Amino acid sequence: MGLDMYAMISDESFEREVDFKPGQDVGELHYWRKHPNLHGWMKTLYFEKGGEQQDFNCTPVTLTETDLARLEADINAGNLPPTDGFFFGASDGSESEDDLAFVAKAREAIADGDTVFYYAWW
């Protein structure tokens, strides 16, 4: 049990940036396990984009190039929000290199025409 976090890619375009149902043709771009501060950052983004599910569990949020630039800046500045939750574990700051590797992969996927979205299950 715990916080499992995924960045997924799809060749689909979605009508909304949140709370959509991806088709079957999706692939995993990146995976994190129990990195609650990144999840907290994504949760903030989800609500900024109009998300309505209060617990932000099992619902996607798309990531644009603008979102990735903001995420990269927040990672580099150490500004991921302290976040906790049931079985979430703890972020300790050692995740930054992996987070930046994700940003690079996501940018490449977007440049290739894919949609990138974040999804967590806990």
TrEMBL record:
One of its GO terms (molecular function) is kinase activity. Keywords: Kinase, Transferase. This is Phosphoglycerate kinase. It comes from Pseudoponticoccus marisrubri.
